[in-house]
Specification:
390 residues, alpha/beta, Beta-Lactamase, Rossmann fold, 2 domains, nine-stranded mixed β-sheet, six-stranded antiparallel β-sheet, 12 helices, globular, disordered N terminus, disordered C terminus
């Protein structure tokens, strides 16, 4: 909290009042402001778009005050033709949400954000969004969209890749899943968790609850941590290290908290996390950029990163106005040899040329085969001529 001298405090509030007076805040009509706090889970809370909220195959709902746009699991991104949602409709919904959340939504507070159990909402006020009040809803339902059968039937990845994932989890390897927003990184993280034995403790750290692992896997030992204004990612990771985690699932590595995440590997914890980047070989550099300003030399930090990142997976989504096709486009492995030389290798890649997909497999490095053998994991990898075992 910032403390003011008495005259400074008066001047501060005078300036705030002046800004509010000059900005001519939008005053809602009485019928736009809800008179009582409603339950967001009421089956009619969202009015015209309620059926879109209820559809588990819809992941995103966006409105620009003229039209409603939908992101669908299989149908792609398209304009919803049977709904007209104008500026007034969005404002009414925004005021209902602001009432539930006890937040302001006006020219002084033109951005309204709200997180619920399976919804993440954002509204932008017309004083800020010149095209009119806008709305964005991201749905994070408590369901597992992936299964081995779906992944093969929908050509998300072949059986050999699923077996690789399964044995890599069993062999306690660290996973860094990359991709762009909406590519499906979180869904893959949820799927990988299904292979973690029930007795191995899992700590999840998120700012918005999207994994829902306790509900999906009630027989596993899972503790869910949610960061907030009082407990940031650094504090959460440090705290979870006293909870005897075998696995740490960080919803997304974004900044300096990755330092604590990397440090956790030295204690024996294993990692599943996501990053925003477009190529698996960029993972170490992306992490290094997050650690900018660290007291260690970059060369030493990179060595630590290569010791901590075992597998990098690139998830990709081709979204059109008629369909969505998600698939694993890259798998790479990283390691540091006995001479402290850094290595990375692509072991699986899907390249799209002229609407055709070309798949390539490459041999697994020796350290990976040795680790599989240590955990008694034997399987046939197409990149190798023989069974992956000693």
């Amino acid at each position: 909290m910032k403390w003011f001298k008495k005259n400074e405090e008066i001047d501060y509030f005078e300036r705030i009042s002046k800004i509010e007076e000059e900005s001519e805040p939008y005053i809602a009509e009485p019928d736009k402001i809800p008179q009582k706090i409603e339950n967001i889970h009421d089956p009619s809370f969202f009015g015209k778009i309620q059926y879109l909220i209820d559809d588990i195959n819809i992941t995103d709902i966006n409105c620009n005050s003229r039209s409603v746009w939908i992101n669908h699991i299989s149908k792609g991104r398209y304009q919803c033709q049977d709904i007209t949602l104008g500026n007034e409709d969005i404002e009414k919904l925004a005021y209902k949400i602001s009432n539930v959340e006890n937040k302001q939504f006006n020219v002084v507070s033109p951005i309204l954000e709200a997180d619920f159990n399976d919804l993440r909402l954002q509204f932008t006020h017309q004083s800020f969004s010149t095209s009119g009040t806008s709305m964005s809803i991201r749905k994070t339902p408590c369901i597992a969209r992936m299964s081995e059968e779906k992944m093969t039937n929908q050509e998300y990845c072949p059986k050999e890749v699923i077996q690789l994932f399964k044995n890599s989890v069993k062999s306690h390897m660290n996973f860094f899943i990359i991709g762009m927003t909406g590519d499906g990184k979180t869904e893959l993280a949820k799927f990988l968790t299904s292979y973690i034995p029930n007795h191995e403790r899992i700590i999840t750290i998120e700012d918005t609850i999207e994994l829902h692992l306790n509900q999906l896997y009630p027989n596993k030992d899972i503790v869910e941590l949610k960061v907030n204004e009082r407990v940031d990612y650094n504090m959460a990771i440090k705290s979870c290290m006293r909870m005897l985690p075998k696995w740490i699932l960080l919803s997304e590595a974004r900044g300096y908290e990755v330092k604590e995440l990397i440090k956790s590997v030295s204690t024996g914890a294993k990692i599943i996390t996501t990053l925003h980047t477009d190529h698996v070989f960029n993972i170490p550099k992306r992490i290094l950029n997050m650690l900018e300003g660290n007291e260690l030399a970059n060369d030493k930090i990179e060595n630590i990163i290569y010791q901590s990142v075992d597998i990098g997976i690139r998830v990709k989504a081709d979204i059109t106005d008629t369909k969505t096709f998600r698939y694993i486009s890259q798998i790479a492995v990283f390691w540091l040899d006995v001479n402290n030389r850094r290595h990375h290798k692509m072991i699986y890649e899907v390249i799209k040329r002229h609407n055709q997909f070309f798949v390539s497999y490459h041999p697994l490095p020796k350290w990976m085969k040795d680790q599989y053998a240590e955990y008694n994991c034997h399987f046939l990898w197409k990149g190798d001529e023989k069974l992956v075992q000693n």
